[in-house]
Amino acid sequence: MLVVAPELLMPFLGYAAYQSGEGPLPALIAGSLGGTTGSTLIYAAARLVDGERVRRWIVHGGRWQLLREHDLEAIDALFQRHGGALVLFGRFIPTVRSLVSVPAGLLPMPWGRFLLFTLLGTTAWNAVLMGGGYTMGANWEALTEALGTYGAIATAVTIAAALIFTLRRLRGATLGKR
Asked: Is 139 exposed, middle or buried (0-12, 13-18, 19+ CB in 10 A)?
């Protein structure tokens, strides 16, 4: 789970548990601990960078810098109000599941709170994926195809949003120069 997306691994593990007649709980625990470990490593790296250092870099950055101080303030306010929910439900969305660990570490969200919401969200998403593989039984390929489509759409939407944000900021930086 540190390297492989849960949408690829967990349905297969649910299917394997179905085929073997064994319960899916050991695989669910292992997958959830692996996913939580990966997210916690990202969180720890962000904690090492330090939110104040990032803020100074953004405030003193050049015109091509995409983030501005008011963006940090908005993210901070959002995390202060909904940080737990963002970390918890962010685990259900490809790409976001990793990225949400960065602001949680930079702000910083308390480690225990981050760990709790990460473990809960990762376990819930893995349970959904494994449950799908387990209940699909011999037809688990249909589930992995649907999840592949979900992952591709969610990733494409995230990339498109980032691209639109980047283009607007760069356009604003260029227009501001004139």
From this structure: exposed
CB burial readout 144-156, b (16+ within 10 A) else e? beebeeebeebee
Among 118, 48, 43, 105, residue whose Cα is nearest residue 75 = 105
**Stretch 80-97: mean pLDDT, rounded?**
90
Rounded to two decimals, the pTM is: 0.72
**Measured distance CA(159)–CA(61) in Å, rounded:** 24
pLDDT of residue 37: 94
**Highest mean pLDDT (candidates 37-46, 136-145, 163-172):** 37-46
C-alpha triplet 151, 152, 158: angle, nearest 5°: 90
Which H helix or E strand runs over 31? helix 25-49
